[in-house]
Specification:
Elements lengths: L2 H16 L5 H11 L9 H9 L8 H21 L13 H40 L2 H32 L1
């Protein structure tokens, strides 16, 4: 399609869109249908396939295979040597020792969480003090005044931008 036809379709769509016409969607569809179809350059598919093929993988890819093989080998050795631990002269920990360690760890975690919650207690007290101060009639009037002033500023900005758009366009 020629550039003039594309320009005509574009202008028709922009006019319909600017007028909030219901036919703007139809005009947009006509514009998109008039656009020329683009296709990739010759050899594009071959270049992409060559770039993603396993043969063009980086040289360090063999390192991952070696690391995985080493990890699996070590896991297999550890599993095979579990029965041999009975021959080691080191005594495994008793159930009471494990339970005491777990209870100590639980106590430490509870203390740590309690310390974190103390910060929130302080923040709650500060928030309560601010809320009490803001509940006074003076503070409420100041907030309402700020909201009204902000609304007036946004309305004025909207009017200025609308006037500028009319002058430019």
């Amino acid at each position: 399609m020629k550039d003039s036809d594309l320009r005509t379709e574009l202008m028709r769509w922009l006019r319909a869109e600017g007028a909030d016409d219901d036919r703007a969607d139809q005009a947009f569809g006509s514009l998109m249908a008039a656009m020329p179809r683009l296709s990739p350059s010759a050899g594009f598919a071959e270049r992409v396939m060559h770039a993603v093929s396993p043969a063009s993988a980086p040289a360090f890819a063999w390192g991952w295979k070696v690391a995985l093989a080493a990890a699996l080998t070590l896991a297999g050795l550890a599993t095979a040597l579990i029965p041999a631990l009975r021959l080691v002269p080191v005594e495994p920990p008793r159930l009471a020792t494990v339970a005491k360690a777990l209870s100590d760890a639980t106590g430490w975690v509870v203390e740590w969480i309690a310390g974190g919650l103390q910060v929130w207690d302080v923040m709650a007290r500060v928030g309560q003090a601010v809320a009490t101060a803001m509940a006074t009639p003076e503070a409420t009037a100041a907030l309402v005044g700020s909201a009204i002033l902000g609304s007036i500023a946004l309305y004025t900005l909207n009017r200025l931008l609308t006037l500028e758009r009319r002058m430019v366009g």
